[in-house]
Design brief:
Elements (H helix, E strand, L loop, with lengths): L2 H13 L6 H8 L3 E10 L5 E12 L5 E8 L4 H17 L6 E7 L7 H15 L8 E5 L5 H15 L19 H19 L8 E5 L3 H12 L3 E7 L2 E4 L6 H11 L9 E3 L1 H5 L2 E7 L8 H6 L1 E6 L8 H10 L3 E2 L1 H4 L2 H15 L5 H26 L3 H20 L2
Parallel strand pairs: 3-4, 3-5, 6-7, 6-10, 10-11, 11-12
Antiparallel strand pairs: 1-2, 2-4, 7-8, 8-9
Helix pairs in contact: 1-3, 1-15, 3-15, 4-5, 6-7, 6-13, 6-14, 13-14, 14-15
The chain binds nicotinamide-adenine-dinucleotide (NAD).
The site of nicotinamide-adenine-dinucleotide has 24 residues, from α7 and β7.
């Protein structure tokens, strides 16, 4: 099964509990537009570098397409489709006026120099600039991209269309970005973990967490949880992991990662593999790396009491069924990691208003939106006797479908 099919499986599970016609289903599942472009640059060696870039625009019934850009060797059309579709449902779940899009370039950013990365980004924008824009499609950071890449996108776009900072979000704060955007996804994951634990009658303080992935999302999630007294007993990244049953000192770990760019080698924990992390006994397991982490076998081996999906698409449908049958609640990606797109929305609004909001206001409004969405979904799941994922999809499908009907086909 591929990623897009998996996303559609989740859509169908929810649609099956609603009165959705076949034609409506087809319209809502299929992407509106798909771009595939060749991105050719001169490498530092003087050789030609050939790369392929994608942008999938899934649905814009509720507003402009919105979603990240990923630079990774696994990027392809199917992955972009799946992630674009998830963005449609995510923006609807937290009720912000956007649709869903996603894209990226198939490359290994760790093997590119800064100059190559800049040329690649500018060439990609040169190829797609007519299809993006503040009222059309607004990219943002994802795996392998960051504020610097977003700054290059804004600058390159301006060469064709003039000054429009709202064309892209996740920009550096000193270059039309928003306070709180870099931390927003992790901040939101920590909020959702706290709200879910409350329902289970547990406080964050003293609860044990294992986090797979220590990039933007994983590291900020760890910081916010640690600050509330959580015990982070294992973390990992693409190079390996570490564990400490007494809790990892996240501030010390951050100092180590700032220098070494990886968690491996940190003295405050013992070496641990990713596989060990996924199957260790822990209260809360947080996948915060790539998609497709949990298959049916790993799901059988998981010994966590709760899973909070910080990554996009970490759970295959077969694994989701195993978690359901084993009674392990899963908070779905389209709710748990929606903090990033919420603050991207605030950044877009600030750019359009040419006005800045303080961090306290941004975090307060982000928290209000996430807590409200969580409770809506939790209550719907209780009422329908379904999983949180199915409830989240039901809420999203209802909102997107209503916008389609009101706007006219
Ligand atoms: P990132 O590139 O900053 O970090 C990714 C992390 O995952 C790195 O630490 C990397 O080493 C690690 N990793 C990669 N392969 C791994 C493996 N096999 N095992 C363990 N760790 C591995 O990316 P990010 O922005 O933190 O995104 C992480 C996830 O969160 C992605 O699924 C992304 O789509 C999702 N997400 C990100 C945002 C955002 O605002 N950045 C918003 C919503 C969802």
């Amino acid at each position: 099964m591929q990623a897009f099919e998996a996303t559609n499986r989740y859509f169908d599970e929810a649609a099956g509990l609603m009165d959705l016609t076949g034609n409506m289903r087809t319209m809502m599942i299929n992407p509106d537009r798909e771009l595939r472009v060749e991105v050719v640059i001169e490498m530092d060696s003087g050789e030609i570098g050939n790369f392929v870039g994608y942008r999938v625009q899934h649905d814009n019934a509720r507003g402009p397409f919105k979603g990240g850009l990923r630079y990774h060797p696994h990027v392809d059309q199917d992955e972009a489709r799946s992630l674009a579709s998830l963005m449609t449902w995510k923006t609807a779940v937290v009720d912000i006026p956007f649709g869903g899009g996603k894209g990226g370039v198939n490359c290994d950013p760790n093997k590119l120099s800064r100059g190559e990365l800049e040329r690649l980004t500018r060439k990609f924008v040169e190829k797609i600039h007519d299809f993006i824009g503040p009222d059309k499609d607004i990219p943002a950071p994802d795996v392998g991209t960051d504020g610097q890449v977003m700054a290059w996108i804004m600058n390159e776009y301006a060469k064709f269309h003039g000054f429009h900072p709202a064309v892209v979000t996740g920009k550096p704060v000193e270059f039309h970005g928003s306070a709180g955007r870099e931390a927003a996804t992790g901040y939101g994951v920590a909020i959702i973990a706290r709200e879910t634990l409350k329902k289970l009658g547990k406080p964050i303080a003293g609860t044990t967490f294992a986090i797979q992935g220590y990039g933007n999302v994983g590291s900020y999630t760890a910081r916010f949880l640690h600050a509330q007294g959580a015990k982070i007993i294992a973390v990992s990244d693409a190079y390996g992991g570490l564990t400490n049953p007494d809790g990892i000192d996240i501030q010390d770990l951050d100092k180590h990662v700032a220098v070494n760019r990886k968690v491996v080698g940190f003295k405050g924990g013992d070496p641990f593999t990713n596989e060990q992390l996924l199957t260790m006994p822990v209260d809360v397991l947080i996948p915060a790396a790539l998609g497709g982490v949990f298959d049916a076998d790993i799901a059988q081996a998981v010994r966590a009491g709760l899973i909070v999906e910080a990554a996009n698409g970490p759970t295959w449908p077969e694994a989701d069924a195993v978690f359901k049958s084993r009674g392990i609640p899963v908070v779905p990606d389209i709710l748990a990691n929606a903090g990033g797109v919420i603050v991207s929305y605030f950044e877009w609004v600030q750019n359009l208003q040419h006005f800045r909001w303080p961090l306290e206001q941004i975090q307060r409004e982000q928290e209000t939106k996430m807590v409200e969405s969580f409770h809506k979904i939790y209550e719907l799941a209780q009422r329908k006797g379904c999983s949180l994922r199915t409830a989240a999809f039901m809420l999203a499908i209802k909102r997107v479908g209503r916008a389609r009907v009101l706007g006219g086909i």
